Known about the structure:
By secondary structure, the protein is mainly α. 94% of the residues lie in helices and 0% in strands.
Amino acid sequence: MIETLTEEKNRLDFELDAALHTFAEYEEGMNVRWQTADPAARQALMDERNQVEEQLGIVTIVMRLDEIREQLDALRQQVA
């Protein structure tokens, strides 16, 4: 069980790194648009930003990684 969870954690760590890299590149472009946007356009940009973050699955990955870490900690305490 520990090995399976560790493999999933490693896979998700890699996916999170890739998603965060993609998001950082997106934000660079968004920052340029933000500087010239009026208040209504800025709200639209924030909505777009949230949608991109959701599409990349960043929150979902982080939540699952937290669950895995908790499970691994519990399993390791049982073994110790």
